[in-house]
Amino acid sequence: xxxxxxxxxxxxxxxxxxxxxxxxxxxxxxxxxxxxxxxxxxxxxxxxxxxxxxxxxxxxxxxxxxxxxxxxxxxxxxxxxxxxxxxxxxxxxxxxxxxxxxxxxxxxxxxxxxxxxxxxxxxxxxxxxxxxxxxxxxxxxxxxxxxxxxxxxxxxxxxxxxxxxxxxxxxxxxxxxxxxxxxxxxxxxxxxxxxxxxxxxxxxxxxxxxxxxxxxxxxxxxxxxxxxxxxxxxxxxxxxxxxxxxxxxxxxxxxxxxxxxxxxxxxxxxxxxxxxxxxxxxxxxxxxxxxxxxxxxxxxxxxxxxxxxxxxxxxxxxxxxxxxxxxxxxxxxxxxxxxxxxxxxxxxxxxxxxxxxxxxxxxxxxxxxxxxxxxxxxxxxxxxxxxxxxxxxxxxxxxxxxxxxxxxxxxxxxxxxxxxxxxxxxxxxxxxxxxxxxxxxxxxxxxxxxxxxxxxxxxxxxxxxxxxxx
Length: 470
Prior knowledge:
Structural class: mainly beta
Radius of gyration: 23 Å
Number of helices: 2
Largest sheet: 5 strands, antiparallel
Oligomer: single chain
Distance between the termini: 59 Å
Number of strands: 35
Strand order of the largest sheet: 1-23-22-21-20
């Protein structure tokens, strides 16, 4: 009797161990299957034509009289347009060799691209400094210290520039601030209850962004007054994308939301990257969504790129890469090419995916961690590698490398159709493509960007690296 009594706890421990092993095995199976599996639902609705064509065109003719930057072109928010498609169509392609017209050293990490309004570009550095820089000469017209940490692009319109901060001075939480573009004076500011790195969306007098406690804000751009606030189930790191009166974004925790623009009501919510048993295979959405062709596109830290129906949220496809996907996609069709999604991964590859079904049109191994978002300018895709400190221009339809420069780290460039405004690791460059008018009127030194090796293919990365999340 005593022997049987001593054996019962032992049997219970054995049973518990077997159960834990079974759970662990199931977790591994779920994680592997979710990580390795692509998904395709070809019957999900897809529009044959681009939904944002009008705002993708830059006028490449400089003004006949007056200032060379008075061309009426704007790149007012991260991603160019409210749908965040990141594609600038040009009637005439820009080609290397690119020449350095000017350089502005910020002495801080430059992670997100500037925005462009009127004669100036506005750049927010990671140390919380906002710069106003002349498009033409590269002269710093003013600089304002807004906080102690930032990781987003500002937004500009109608003589005001708006910035979202991860951390304000004297606090671990962030703030949003509006400054006049002429003198840099503060128009209004609003303290936030948590950190914020969601590049603000500016649309028809309203400002939209999310923060790390899951809140999404809609503020009056003129005053900063709160119009509505939505609570998501996860940190909102990326920016919000807008199409046809609906806002789209992903969260940490793997959910994608669609909200009504007017009052913030939830249209739909989909848990597409939340993982399986015990959270296995879960992915976070740091990526800012892009919306086109009736679809929502974004990448996740589980290594997958997703396409969902903009109307219903139904998953159209999931394409697995070989590493983290922090980048925001560029979406569109250029130079007569097909509807495509361009996105980089921590596996060192730049991908061109079919926008309808997610199949790989081409992939180019550039090496390193492609954590920044690609930008399509004309028929070239510009992208940078963080750990290789290099950037490339790749044919959007061919995948062929046409230019490389040993500068850059995160999100690479914007353009006004004549000049490229290029992010180095801690500097902003004005680059003049071959034959552009800016090259004849710009002040400052002229140096080749890329030199003789501009057209040489980069070597493949010899080793990988662990992902470093935000």
